[in-house]
Design a protein that fits this description.
heterodimer; A: 420 residues; alpha+beta; 2 domains; four-stranded antiparallel sheet; 14 helices; 38% helix; B: 2 strands
Amino acid sequence: MANFIDQANKEALKLMQDAQPTLIGMGIAKDTLPGMRDNLILHAGPPVKWEDMSGPLRGAVVGGIIYQGLAETVDEAKELAASGKIDFDSCHHHSAVGPMAGVVTAKMPVFIVKNMDQGNYAYCTMNEGLGEVLRFGAYGENVIKHLNWMEKTLYPILKEALEIHGPIDIKSMNAQALQMGDEVHNRNKAGTSLFIREIASSIVKTNASEEDKVKVFDFLNSNDHFYLNLSMPGAKCTMDPVGKVKYSTVVYTMARNGTEFGIRVAGLGDRWFTAPAEIIDGLYFPGYSMEDANRDIGDSCITETSGIGGFAMASAPAIVQFVGGTPADAVQYTTSMYEITLEESVAYKMPNMNFRGTPTGIDIRKVIETQIRPVINTGIASKHAGVGQVGAGVVRPPMKCFEDALQAFVEMLDNEGLLD
Amino acid sequence: MKVNELFKSELKVINMGLESFYQDMKSQDVSAIHVNWKPAAGGNEKMAALLARMKSI
């Protein structure tokens, strides 16, 4: 007979399977994110202090302060960041997620994604594209200029287009993208294309100038990862309700801040279990090596937490040219994830796996028992602020996160008198 | 079947445990498969004990 942990996990998995992440609109962070304010800067991963932040996160904070208008020069921004007058917090504590450094400031535009099943929301900024961008820690003049273009031109056009179009079903779009060769974490070509196809006529119908509409289309078309910032809040609003299921051993958050990797487990509430994040042994761009790499960073592994991303790698054989390995390795990565998960996704089917559903619902007991850690597809940031992406690869969370969580879980059961 | 008779027939070996036994078979062209088996929690006694406690519920 199933015990109360198994029953709790069944409830957690029902929440994951029934989730209906839906893009319902856009807003400004300060007006939409719970608890957002002018002197608060959000970042990826578990909470981290300014003095413990890595190069790319510090760089993104500096850029964020300048963009927000809190300081004019880099030196002033660094001084302000270290002064204690700026509050830092994890995106996850404000229903948000951010790729790489994941910096969110009060005036940044965000996507609003609603889980129609449970009524909860998740938020994410728009993807900036590749190259010299804030999320990799760049803070130069071009970065701020591009962020301002996104706020003044891209945001109003997309916001108006979404109002014309109406809600967009992210779950359905993820499912289609998986069948078109994406895993919607590190490969988003299909997802981005599907989004453009869906929103195109509504963009044309906006009141913006023809010139700006063309610029928006060109930007969307040039940025293969634009859809990542929709798949991520889709996964976030899928997983947040799971975090309220008492006695469940399902992992509902995995995230990295560039210094530490953190996980949260449903039955243990808001508590983070952290360990030093790993340096990724991946494929480095010409001229770069592991020597240049920062530790693992970003909230994007919320996709793997929800059963897509690296867990759906079999669906994205072409990604191995980006992260390393062979298409057979991609299938093997996905296959091994069934060992540590509780169910197969009803919605996310993989053609290369004979339309088997993606491995869904990481159980900390299974991770410890099998010693198989979740597989994550990821970009690699330079350890120096402003350099940008230096490669991509496959990474796993430190086992210590799961060991500490399992121990805390047993202690919790013990304290409640539920163990012999 | 007596052991001597067994070794006169074609062997199909399933190896569990030390992988070197499997490698020895392979090097002698004996058809063999290796079972990818590990002790619970990779032999970490503390973690195995925690799992056992949870299983006792």
